Hints:
Layout: E1 8-12, H1 16-33, E2 34-35, E3 44-48, H2 50-59, H3 64-72, H4 91-114, H5 121-124, H6 140-149, E4 165-172, E5 178-181, H7 191-198, E6 208-210, E7 213-217, H8 227-231, E8 236-240, H9 248-254, H10 266-293, E9 298-302, H11 309-312, H12 322-339, H13 341-350, E10 354-355, H14 357-360, H15 380-402
Parallel strand pairs: 1-3, 1-8, 3-4, 8-9
Antiparallel strand pairs: 2-10, 4-5, 4-7, 6-7
Amino acid sequence: MPGVRRSVGLALAGGGPFGAVYEIGALLALEESLEGLELDALDCYVGVSAGSFLAAALANGIGAREMYRLFIEGGDGPGALAPGLFMRPAFGEYLRRARLLPPLLARSAWRYARRPLGQDTLESFASLGRALPTGVFDNEAIHRYLEHVFSRSGRTNDFRELARRLYLVATDLDTGESVSFGRPGHDHVPISRAVQASAALPGLFPPVEIDGRHFVDGALRKTLHASEALDDGMRLVICVNPIVPFDAKLAAQRGRGPQSNLIDGGLPTVLSQTFRAVIHSRMAAGIAKYRTQYRGADIVLFQPEPDDGEIFFTGIFSYATRRRVCEHAYERTRRDLVNRAADLEPLFARHGMRYRWDVLREPHRRLDAGSPARPRGRGRLPEAVGELHDTLASLKRWMARAA
């Protein structure tokens, strides 16, 4: 019999819109498969980057199934997520930087004219870099969206009014230190603003100014920051990380990857693998350290398999295939629970949770139970089929509403 449930925390890593979509699928699988696990009623939540969206929602009592409706299905109710939220151009930032260009250009030209042979041309005009926008997309829309969602009855945009602990981690741009919003001294910041700061990936989103300091993505220092929950005495911390490096050789051997040499994919593929390898190596080192430092606590990590080409070849800013990615994460996490049952079943039992084998043994169980399984394959074909499925599902809902 399961024991009494002990203090349980949840730590969610980043990974852009793709990461959030993957995490929703994984969370739904966990909640369905573990009796006694209520993801919107845990003791502590930690979110980094895209994971901060979901951590803040869960701490506000918005369950995983409701997040699926709002974020994946694009429901019609209040708070439904518009696909373009993350992709709105940062016109304000463009304008601010454009205003700097004329004086910077004049000074650079004057400097070069005074000493045309005394310094390199590029050196003379190096200051023009100050006129480049610090981000391509407008993350102010993220703050406004969440501010609206958390202002509804029964929810709050104030850390201090939450019934549960919530920590959203960002990086101070000027010092490089991690700052945990939700801790004393940083709990006055609106939750929506803290999410905006934690998810401000440099180059894509401008840094977020809070109390005269500028913050960027919390993953710059650590991938998970699960120590925030462990420091608060959590005896079990469930971690979800959607970003892993791809083992192309293993995938080719198992027939799951389109190519065995990633260099054939060009620069985007090389950069993606590099980013994933850096992020994952830091996380693996962190998990190992946690298990040594917090010996009385259990840490369980869920993430994609290294030979999962479907996950690797989906861009982290892909939103069009969100339903397919979420379903894939759901299936993958269910399979992971089964494969690791010898270790995980007794571990979860110690914390008052029981494996629901009746659910896990359903071979064709799906998130979208009313839709037939989509064909699987390689390359662009499954992606195209997935996108067609999503379009047809949207059309079906529209026709139902119009009837």
